Amino acid sequence: MSSVRVPFVDLAAEYTSIRVEIDEAVGAVLRKGWYILGAQVAAFEREFAAFCGVEHGVGVASGTDAIHLAIRACGITAGDEVVTVANVSAPTVCAIVAAGARPRFADVRSDTMTMDPRRVDDLLRGDSSHRIKAIVPVHLYGHPAEIDRIVELARGHGAAVIEDACQAHGTTYNGRHVGSFGDAGCFSFYPTKNLGAYGDGGLVVCRDGAIAERVRMLRCYGEASKYKNLTYGINSRLDELQAAILRVKLRHLTSWNERRRSLAARYMAGLAGAGVETPVEAAGAFHTYHLYVVRSSRREALQAALRERGIGTSVHYPIPIHFQDAYRDLGYSAGDLPQTEACCAEVLSLPISTAMPPESVDIVCDAIRAFGNG
Ligand SMILES: *Cc1c(COP(=O)(O)O)cnc(C)c1O
After folding, report:
1. Cα(356) to centroid(ligand 1), Å
2. Centroid of ligand 1 to alpha carbon of 73 (angstroms)
3. What does the alpha-carbon distance between residue 135 and residue 147 come to, in Å, rounded to a whole number?
4. For the packed helices 91-98 and 63-73, what is the interaxial angle rounded to 10 degrees?
5. Contact at 8 Å (CB) between 344 and 140?
6. pLDDT tens digit string along 302-351?
7. Which region, left, alpha or beta, applies to residue 310 given φ > 0 means left and ψ of -120 to 50 means alpha?
8. Residues 170-180: pLDDT tens digits?
9. Taking the C-alpha atoms of 350, 137, 51 and 34 in order, what is their torsion angle to the nearest 10 degrees?
10. Which atom of ligand 1 is least distant from the CA of 202?
11. How many CA atoms lie within 13 A of 82 on its CB side?
């Protein structure tokens, strides 16, 4: 195999570009000697909630925990059903199961690959015994789901909406930040995300102070105050070091998202007529390109050809959740979610990251053209 010419993502290069600010912020936390639930976490919670245009933010240990605890905070309990999508990796579904609920899947739109409100409507119409208590749309790859329509459908059924915005920091829909539409919005700060920590981290944003309070309780053993337990909880906290790092990085997020958008525009121009389907940005959507995902009916061969030329790619995600062994007992089979299954067979994520030089996009586009003509 040839050496790497275009890495799929380069996090060390991003760190280098902000090293002085990061080192100062980390040093200040270490010198102070307070590491869990302190001033940095409180400040980051305020700053990130304000960035999203909502009142409350609660830091937790991961995006998965953000979804899990938000679902519980919205009152969903054992035996309830929660609708999400299946063209994702496991965390969204793990969070639903951790909350004691049963996942159900709505198929996705073929263009944006996000939750199709028409399929949500079908599921809600079929739910005469009102088992469906929440909808968890995923703002996939940085593109918003049709969240206004989904919220409207959920309200009509008395179901909560918990947004999985783990891939969508800064994404907006009709000018409003995702995470601010539903009862709660959930973010992950896994290192590769558009806003990434140098470890794990997550956060729940919401407008309702009572939901925020419940998440605060649940993230800390179910304590309403020190040693006073109102419910059973878990240990799921964002730490001071990660919060300090995230506060620095939040100041760069808007310009980093613009960088991603300009790399995406360069891909779009460079891939015209190259034999792959490029991502769409729907009306009203502001896409932040957490991932730049093309579709090809010859995905495996294309990925191998790019690897030969030293170009790193990835597949998000090759196996839909309803095909996974862990979720066999949910009773789905092949053909149940046709658009989801087609996506998983065709998607290919091309390199995109904040430190990627624009010329690298041209290298990738040339390689894809060469493959198309081969
Ligand atoms: C990353 C991600 C999560 C989970 O986040 P973690 O911080 O890794 O737990 C959930 N949903 C989606 C769509 C994600 O991309």
Report:
1. 23
2. 19
3. 11
4. 40
5. no
6. 999 999 999 999 999 999 999 999 999 999 999 999 999 999 999 999 99
7. left
8. 999 999 999 99
9. -90
10. 7
11. 34
